[in-house]
């Protein structure tokens, strides 16, 4: 229900654009506080629209608890998102994507939101990769607003930034700087491919829904450097 109106809404590659008539979305923190422009958080719907999903078959209580209890008075979509300076909404991915780091369960969206809050970061995606001690560690794929090349000083700066925003447990162990992230034609980041790359296996899964194969090739070349 966040979709461009044909002939009326200028589009941007990768963004869901603006809401349809009658749909009132917002992006908030886990406490329900709106994050404003250039901020990342939970995508919620402030008001229902006609024919909106009404319940879960045979389980009204579960429907209320799952979709309406986390953020008071709002429908929780289950997606993380951000709003740019023009008010366009970018869907970043599911908030139930969880990494288990040394027994701590951490949502990838939390780390991504922290990275995007950095003034130099345009976009970020995080995935979990196997770690022999912690179980999993965080690999961060980042698109900067400037040059996207390997930079040890910038990696340290971003890692410190995340620690200040969330805590030491959320410090990414690996960074990959890229001019673009692999996305489907609908604009969703393909974290499955990012996990394949971060694992260092040299193999990636199905790429038939990938919008731009050159993005994947660029990330693989970066990995080989």
Protein model, in words:
This protein is of the alpha+beta class and 225 residues long. The protein folds into 2 domains: 24-90, Luciferase, Domain 3 (Luciferase, domain 3); 97-224, GMP Synthetase, Chain A, domain 3 (2-Layer Sandwich), CATH 3.30.300.30. It is 23% helix and 27% strand. It has 5 helices and 9 strands, in the order ββαββββαββαβαα. It has helices at 60-67, 108-116, 152-165, 191-198, 213-224, and strands at 24-28, 40-47, 75-83, 89-94, 98-101, 104-107, 121-131, 135-144, 174-177. It has a 4-stranded antiparallel sheet with strand order 1-2-3-4. The protein has a 3-stranded mixed sheet with strand order 7-8-9, sandwiched between helices. A hairpin with a 2-residue loop joins strand 5 and strand 6 (104-107). The longest helix has 14 residues, at 152-165. The mean pLDDT is 83.
Short description:
With 225 residues, this protein is an alpha+beta fold.
What are the SSEs and their pairings?
Layout lengths: L23 E5 L11 E8 L12 H8 L7 E9 L5 E6 L3 E4 L2 E4 H9 L4 E11 L3 E10 L7 H14 L8 E4 L13 H8 L14 H12 L1
Parallel strand pairs: 8-9
Antiparallel strand pairs: 1-2, 2-3, 3-4, 5-6, 7-8
